[in-house]
Every structure is written in C-alpha cells, then in structure tokens.
Write a structure and sequence with these properties.
The protein has 2 helices and 4 strands; from the N terminus they run ααββββ. The protein has 100 residues and is an alpha+beta fold. It has 2 domains: 33 residues; 42 residues. It has a 4-stranded antiparallel sheet with strand order 1-2-3-4, with no helix packed on it.
Length: 100
Amino acid sequence: MNADRYTRIVLGVIAVALVVIAAQPWLSGAGWLGALRPEAVQAQTAAAKYEVGVPKSWGKFVAYSNNNLLLEAPDGSWRIVDVEGRMPEYPKVKVLIRWQ
C-alpha cells in the first residue's frame, strides 16, 4: 500500500513537470517561471597566453614540440625556436643547425 502511494506521488510529480515543460512557450512571460529557468549560457574563449610573430625569413615550418618550432631555412640549415614568452625577447633561436 505504501509502494502504491509512493508510485502515485512520483508519477504525479513527473506529470506536473511534463506539463510545465510543454507549457513553457506560452508561459514565457510569467515571472515565477523565470526563477526556475537557468541562466543563458554564453560562449567564452580564452585569450592566447602568448602571441608571437616568427619572421618567414627564418625558414619553413617543419615541426612543433615542447613549445619549440623547428624551421628549415632555404640554405638547408635548421633552427629550433623557443616561442614561449612575450615580445620583444621572444621568439628566440635556441639552436641553429648547419649541415656540412
């Protein structure tokens, strides 16, 4: 008998909730419904931690690893460039590799 009463109460709550959801477009002007509605979500993007410009004359992009760029210059040399930091001290060349 207690289970029957519990089942009727739960089904009644579900029915009321479904009616409120279905009637929401017509009740949008009601002030009490606004208290039940969550706030509208706004998309937010995080600003870049670092913004660095690398000269094209340093070479063509080959790879990126551990916050370093690997660039290949037209003469065949490679540069490992550290990009984690702020202008004007970054980007800075950490390693310059010349093949002989």
